[in-house]
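Contributing new complexes? Match this layout with pyridoxal-5'-phosphate.
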Amino acid sequence: MKDKNRYLYKVLATDIEKKILNGTYVIGEKLPSIRELHTNLNLSISTICKAFVELERTGLIEVRPKSGYYIKPIPFLDQKIPSIGAGSHSPQKIESSFISNEVQLAMRNPNYLPLGTAALSIDLMPVKEIIRLIKNVSYRGIKSIFSYSLPQGEPELRRQLALRTVGFLEGVLPDNYIVTNGCTEALVLALKAVVKPEDTVAIESPTFYGILTVLEEMGVYVVEIPTDPVEGVNIEALENSIATNNIKACLFMSNFQNPLGSLIPDEKKEKLVRLLNHHEIPLIEDDVYSSLYHGKERPKPLKFWDRKELVLTCTSFSKTLAPGLRVGWIIAGNRFKNRLIELKRETSIATSCLDQYVMTEILKSGAYDKHLRHLRNSTRKQLYNVAHAIHEYFPKNIRLAVPKGGFLLWVQLPEGVDSIELYYKALEKQISILPGTICALSNQYKEYIRISCGHPFTEDIRKGIAMVGDLIRELSP
Ligand SMILES: Cc1ncc(COP(=O)(O)O)c(C=O)c1O
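Output block (do not edit by hand):
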């Protein structure tokens, strides 16, 4: 009975939420009263109250004393940050900046309020479930953990991963997977399989700063393709760049891009893959955030449209389960698979058996899918709550686009506010934020910051955001 009630309140809350987000309910509109819903829907008063509390927590509705529940505006939901059309037009080598290294270190400092790092709070990880699974490892299981795994990865883990693509990525088999140490190793191996030093790689502008470090190490040239905060990489700009540069590979994020949160619409994804297939250019896709969608279903990876085995999909469980379990993977066709396995063997022999074992058990037990359902809810709430706080405490002339998934917010600061200065001032107050400058070459995005919403929204986070808001005002010319 308890479960049934829980289900009913969730169904009601989800239905109202959908109707708010698709505009059926308009901002400021009053919701039907608890009594009306009780009579019309034949639901108990407590079920309806619970649904309303859930919607209030998400920041979608508010109670007005003696009046009822009203639809609250989600600040910035329809706002667009204009694409600034940045990007380098000719290939350049990357020289890592001191500030980029420093920011990466600061983000890992547990004493700072974590608005910078794109990592989930441990409170959102299914710690008890993982401990239970580890405790239950049998003697036989433990013995198998002491040997080297296969360079390609444990067969059962690859089977579990392949099962998750049923109806989603046609024809993908366990044999198409190469298990890696997180997405970072997946990206490194994929790049090494398709480019060599001095080649040119096209990336998004702005992009995930970790990719810049990897590309610098590899000694390749990069061209930056302007990327829209809503619709992702600009295909016309990419076409022009292909015509003028000898691009050997592209590295893009189509689903909830880091740092923008952009999601490439399906028709644009298809066009992008067709273009690259036509030019025989390998496409490495970094897909770490796609499971954290807000809509009805997980957005498709670019690989879905690949007809020439040129797309290498790289991802991991770091953004959805635990970055400490270094389990990631590449999905590759026969064209690059053997080369990738060879590279994996040369780089790290194989991924840790223990990590793979734990991950396999989590997938097999159904615990991962259950956890994901909760996590999607939590990260969406966190994102909306932070957006509300930004709306309340930041100056009104900032811009922000609320993404349709993931947990990152890209904020355009008022003109003249330098994100590096803001970063140092925030650090003095023990708050870490990510200055936009480190997400691209040559000092672009000086007036942008990325705020991560990977932690449950608490009073400390509210105060931290209020402090960042004050600092922005202080630095405004
Ligand atoms: C877009 C993107 N790709 C890859 C990574 C690294 O993932 P992993 O920890 O699995 O190596 C991150 C982590 O921040 C990321 O944001």
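Reviewers usually confirm one structural detail per submission. For this one: The pocket of pyridoxal-5'-phosphate is lined by residues 118, 182-184, 208, 210, 253, 258, 286, 288, 316, 318, 323, 328 (CB under 6 Å).
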